[in-house]
Amino acid sequence: xxxxVSRRAGPYQGGTRxxxxxxxxFQETDVAVMxxxxxxxxxxxxxxxxxxxxxxxxxxxxxxxxxxVLTSALESxxxxxxxxxxxxxxxxxxxxxxxxxxxxxxxxxxxxxxxIQQLVEKTARTVTVPATSETTSKELIATxxxxxxxxxxxxxxxxxxxRLYESADNIDTVANHIGNVDAVVGHIGNVDTVAxxxxxxxxxALSANNVDTVANHxxxxxxxxxxxxxxxxxxxxxxxxxxxxxx
Length: 247
Fold this sequence. Notes:
Elements: E1 8-13, E2 18-21, E3 31-36, E4 44-45, E5 52-56, E6 66-70, E7 79-84, H1 102-123, H2 137-156, H3 158-166, H4 168-176, H5 178-186, H6 188-196, H7 198-206, H8 208-216, H9 218-226, H10 228-236, H11 238-246
Antiparallel strand pairs: 1-7, 2-6, 3-4, 3-7, 5-6
């Protein structure tokens, strides 16, 4: 008889040499020991007889499982898991010339059930899709990797994203005036020209009131401009003009 159990022990945090498991196996090599730095990626399988040994409980029916003993203590920053690794074979051979002891049949059936549980535990850690989905697991994985690549691209531009976030209010303001932004874009050549003369623009801005006054009398300015020679003559005799003005 074999109870319905998970055929994985852990994950355990490092810092020791000893790690227990409580699922039934048939020999010391029926378990695999996996180690990683973060429990997510870069998993490595330890080598039996080199990296670790296994001490099985004497009665695997009454007290299944045993102890994995590492050659040296696992680093405290690493994570370890023990999983069932029973070979997918059927070693029992029955013949017509001998009795069929119940213990042989029970052991054979237990081995088959253990292999099933082993597959159940493994598939529980795989990527699956709902039964109603038309997407295959392969397509789902491809989509996840595409998302990972896009996320990595975003990470490469985190500084710019942070700047955009900090300027979110300004972005909203621009968005509310997008029509004007489009109008400016339509005259970007003139904007560039003004930009090259920005010092003069600043000077004009400081005299904005005078500029407005001139603009309000632009017809008179045009008239004066049409008589520039006479304006020069008057300017040359400005003291006489002042005298006349005083009369």
